[in-house]
Amino acid sequence: NAGVTQTPKFQVLKTGQSMTLQCAQDMNHEYMSWYRQDPGMGLRLIHYSVGAGITDQGEVPNGYNVSRSTTEDFPLRLLSAAPSQTSVYFCASSYRGGLAGGSSGANVLTFGAGSRLTVL
Amino acid sequence: AQKITQTQPGMFVQEKEAVTLDCTYDTSDPSYGLFWYKQPSSGEMIFLIYQGSYDQQNATEGRYSLNFQKARKSANLVISASQLGDSAMYFCAMREGFYNQGGKLIFGQGTELSVKP
Question: Across the interface, which of A35, A97, A110 has its CB nearest the CB of B100?
């Protein structure tokens, strides 16, 4: 099993350029999500999806688009890159689960290796 | 307001000693889950341990245990017998709400642990 695969691992963009970060999982997970990691701020949720055709915004969605046409893929699109989007991006997936507070709530997120994006 | 607070930006521990990493959380939901992840210098996120709000006992996974104090809203990670390979960034995270809600996690700022030989 490959788990969660993110591409590219590194990318340098100029301000105003667009690009797509790819994310694919082969675990048949219902849930997928994108996070960004900035120094001193932990990981913050950008967008997430509970299944094919269903997406929603997280904490920091501005400047990003997502779509989920299949269970396996969840690409993240930067529409017009800005220096503030310089960050490390993580894609994650998990099974759908039960109560968040119970033992069945331990649907652990599996993370991809991350994509380091620099916007000049 | 911060939902997950990790007050120790950096910590040092001697090899083979135990260390406690602090995490406090804030939620009004009765159903929530607390996670700890490890991020070594290579960058990947590694799941360590989980505690559900309904769990009666503190979670343990090998050398990791979670000191869950519900009334204080704290979920401290205890690493026993530290090893050099434990040097990493550690994140506390919370999932809140009755259902899993798409696997959304709220992360703390992280604690960087350095293990000295």
Answer: A97
Please indicate if any CB of chain B lies within 8 Å of the CB of A33.
yes
The amino acid at residue A53 is G
**Chain A hits for B35, Cβ within 8 Å:** 108-109
| CA–CA dist B51, A6 (Å, integer) | 28
Token look-up 């999500």 returns A33
Look at residue A105 and give its three-state secondary structure. Answer: helix
Residue with the two structure tokens 């360590």: B48
| 8-state DSSP, B94 | E
Whether the per-residue pLDDT at B100 is higher than 60: the answer is: no
Task: For chain A, give the mean pLDDT.
Answer: 91
Per-residue pLDDT reduced to its tens digit, B36-62: 999 999 999 999 999 989 888 999 999
**Residue A84 corresponds to which tokens in the numbers above?**
């503030």
**CB within 8 Å of A62: residues ≥ 6 apart:** none
